[in-house]
Specification:
Rossmann fold, 6-stranded mixed β-sheet, ATP-binding, alpha/beta, 12 strands, zinc transport, 265 residues, 2 domains, 3-stranded antiparallel β-sheet
Length: 265
């Protein structure tokens, strides 16, 4: 996938300005930014739900059907009589009409995907009664069962405990390489992704800095992106961003804008 100089406005407000980056097969990319930075708008633009006023999104093969998508919010009623395997199987029929007939081939595909995301042990449980981490594994299986070339995930790590976050990140890193699927994952906090990311797209004020984490998460790059002084501090394998507000007063950003994108737990 390649995004070329995309500019997007919604209701007369500029959301994304001159966004440009590319993803190769099997590459894991973190889309990092605070609330309102344009992460979801960028994902919706790639999906074709939002049209850029200038620039373009180019997909390998030219087909958006080759994209898997895990949305930010997915309400699952605990009483819904839908098993984990049923939700995964629904992913086979996204481009088809009618009621599919059961077959050994369909069940084999579902079983293989459940095993790939390590969800086979709870495949026959109701989806609404699973933990947050288990639900994310099932949603990922649903999105990947047709083997898309690109997988988009909108805040999949939100509201998960530390163990589940680590497990989901490791799972996505493994699957991206195994299936040669490019992964674009949006998040506020880059720290859980540091060991997995091949590159980063860092959004602020509608603009983006892209490249490797080492190349992008630097004082001079983020200062230029935000328009005021940003200090990047690396401590014990984690990243702390310390900003100076426009008045010049230093503050450690532990959840506020701009660096809620690199929160320190």
């Amino acid at each position: 996938m390649e995004v070329r100089k995309a500019r997007v406005s919604l209701a007369g407000r500029l959301i994304l300005d001159d966004i440009e980056f590319a993803l190769r097969p099997g590459e894991f990319c973190g889309l990092i930014g605070s609330n309102g930075s344009g992460k979801t708008t960028l994902l919706r633009t790639i999906l074709g739900f939002v049209s850029p006023e200038s620039g373009r999104v180019m997909l390998g093969g030219g087909k958006r059907a080759a994209i898997g998508y895990v949305p930010q919010k997915f309400a699952l009623d605990p009483l819904m009589p839908l098993r984990a395997r049923d939700l995964v199987e629904l992913g086979l029929d996204g481009a088809r009409f009618g009621i599919p007939l059961p077959s050994r081939a369909r069940r084999a595909k579902v079983d293989a995907m459940l095993q790939a995301v390590e969800a086979d042990s709870f495949a026959d449980q109701r989806i609404g009664r699973l933990s947050g981490g288990q639900q994310q594994r099932v949603l990922i299986a649903h999105a990947l069962i047709r083997r898309p070339r690109l997988l988009l995930l909108d805040e999949p790590l939100a509201n998960l405990d530390i163990r589940s976050v680590a497990g989901i990140v490791a799972l996505l890193r493994r699957l991206s390489r195994e299936f040669q699927t490019a992964v674009l994952l949006s998040a506020h906090d880059m720290n859980p992704l540091l060991s997995a990311m091949d590159r980063i797209v860092y959004l602020a004020h509608g603009r983006a800095a892209t490249g490797s984490t080492q190349a992008v998460v630097r004082t001079e790059v983020l200062s230029r992106l935000y328009g005021f002084r940003i200090d990047v501090i690396r401590v014990h394998g984690r990243i702390l961003v310390v900003a100076a507000d426009p008045a010049g007063e230093a503050l450690a950003t532990l959840g506020g804008d701009p660096a809620s994108v690199v929160q320190i737990p």
